């Protein structure tokens, strides 16, 4: 039965567009590491408010902001800003050129990646999207066509709303709305509009950072597998100390981008260091995904503007630091927890409850590309699944059958690969299915096992073997050798 729309054409069209853009499969929010289970209820905010490490982080940041504001009022603050101006002056004189080059380069990069919307996180099977991205990059060459590129960016952002969860698309506000707004303002002939072009970029990144930082309070369990796989990320701090303090750092540095010139530029420099250091452990895809955000952060650090256009009195006042931070926390926490309840309801389980019911690794929807699938089902290969039985009380015969299937597949592919005439190539072609067999066994263990040491070993095997498989694929591709489909 078709829905009946009101006779008001404008409202009817709006409702039709809303229906067309309704999420197709919004149960998972795909990020760098795995598709998260986002319809789980966020942890009660009282858990964060009872965490002493949260308050430790807040106090440390408040102290830093207040000291920086006190220094900023003195001659030393002026000298510090003047020194930053001199250091960044060559970039400042060509800042619009830099931004336009980075935006165009970003869209060329994701065109080259292919199959994504505005970031490698947001995948799409529509090939024409990549060509639209190339047109967006081309439109940035001329100020006359920049508004069309801005419209294209907004169109991609809205398309992503159709395929992904609108609640978590707010993470990508800076990549969509803010960049598009910059292009519109930069192409304008009105000076009173153009003067806000860098400010809109700053607000877009700040809002995106503050919004996404709340995941560390609402869903700290999402980050447990990542911390387990890459323990160096915590700088030696225990997991339950590092995650809330990292959330505080991300939120407050985002807030700092909206503050007075010295505070925002120091916040931008700190964020730039964090993003740059993330490139090595997470690789080139991470660099592509964050390139535009990093470029905007560089713009903030190089921006010589000292004028405050909005709420200048409270932003300059010393008391404005705690008042502003408190207000920002209240607004964002209320919006995050409130909008989640509006989208998903209030009768869903929290991640802690899901993990207690399904196991240590039940933080994500299952993905064959990542080792963090739920416990109830493990996929051996595309289209080939374990018997669909509950993880608790699995039948021994079903588990043995799953192991047997994986070993037969591994053996057949190994023997085929070892027949290659080149001994070095034969070794690699044999080792790839060997490693994949270990991954398949580890996934079966995660789906059916219970021993904590074995579960940890299985996670370690998956992470290590995936990295080595990628290295072997790269070795073969460098020699022009086609890897047989598994």
TrEMBL record:
Keyword DNA-binding included in the entry's annotation: no
A Pfam entry, by short name: DUF305
Superkingdom of the organism of origin: Bacteria
Residue ranges the record marks as coiled coil: none
Transmembrane spans: 52-71, 98-119, 131-160, 167-185, 241-259, 266-282, 317-339
Key words, A-Z: Membrane, Transmembrane, Transmembrane helix
Name used for this protein in its record: DUF305 domain-containing protein
């Amino acid at each position: 039965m078709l829905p009946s729309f009101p006779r008001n054409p404008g409202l009817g069209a709006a409702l039709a567009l809303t229906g067309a853009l309704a999420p197709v499969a919004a149960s998972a929010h795909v990020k760098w590491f795995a598709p998260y289970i986002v319809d789980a209820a966020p942890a009660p905010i009282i858990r964060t408010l009872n965490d002493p490490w949260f308050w430790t982080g807040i106090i440390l940041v408040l102290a830093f902001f207040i000291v920086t504001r006190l220094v900023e009022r003195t001659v030393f603050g002026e000298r510090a800003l003047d020194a930053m101006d001199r250091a960044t002056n060559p970039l400042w004189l060509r800042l619009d050129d830099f931004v336009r080059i980075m935006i165009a380069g970003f869209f060329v990069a994701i065109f080259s990646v292919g199959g994504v919307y505005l970031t490698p996180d947001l995948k799409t099977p529509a090939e024409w999207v990549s060509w639209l991205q190339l047109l967006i990059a081309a439109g940035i060459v001329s100020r006359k066509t920049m508004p069309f590129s801005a419209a294209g960016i907004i169109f991609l952002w809205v398309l992503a709303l159709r395929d992904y969860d609108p609640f978590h698309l707010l993470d990508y506000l800076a990549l969509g709305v803010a960049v598009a707004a910059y292009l519109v303002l930069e192409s304008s002939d009105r000076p009173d509009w153009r003067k806000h072009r860098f400010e809109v970029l700053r607000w877009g990144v700040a809002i995106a950072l503050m919004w996404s930082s709340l995941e560390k309070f609402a869903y700290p369990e999402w980050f447990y597998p990542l911390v387990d796989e890459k323990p160096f990320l915590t700088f030696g701090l225990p997991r339950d100390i590092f995650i809330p303090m990292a959330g505080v750092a991300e939120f407050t540095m985002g807030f700092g981008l909206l503050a007075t010139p010295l505070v925002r530029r120091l916040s931008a420099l700190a964020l730039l260091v964090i993003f740059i250091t993330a490139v090595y452990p997470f690789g080139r895809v991470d660099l592509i995904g964050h390139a535009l955000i990093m470029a905007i952060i560089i713009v903030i650090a190089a921006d010589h503007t000292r004028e405050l256009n909005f709420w200048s009195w409270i932003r300059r006042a010393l008391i404005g630091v705690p008042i502003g931070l408190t207000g920002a926390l209240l607004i964002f926490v209320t919006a995050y927890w409130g909008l989640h309840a509006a989208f998903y309801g209030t009768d869903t389980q929290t991640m802690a409850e899901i993990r207690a019911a399904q196991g240590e690794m039940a933080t994500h929807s299952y993905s064959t590309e990542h080792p963090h699938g739920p416990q109830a089902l493990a996929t051996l290969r595309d289209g080939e699944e374990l018997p669909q039985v509950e993880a608790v009380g699995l039948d021994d015969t079903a588990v043995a059958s799953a192991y047997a299937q994986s070993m037969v597949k591994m053996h057949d592919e190994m023997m085929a690969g070892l027949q290659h005439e080149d001994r070095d190539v034969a070794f690699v072609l044999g080792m790839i299915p060997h490693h994949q067999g270990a991954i398949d066994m580890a996934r079966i263990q995660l789906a059916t096992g219970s021993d904590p040491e074995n579960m940890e070993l299985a996670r370690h095997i998956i992470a290590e073997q995936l990295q080595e498989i990628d290295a072997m694929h790269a070795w073969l591709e460098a020699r022009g050798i086609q890897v047989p489909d598994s």
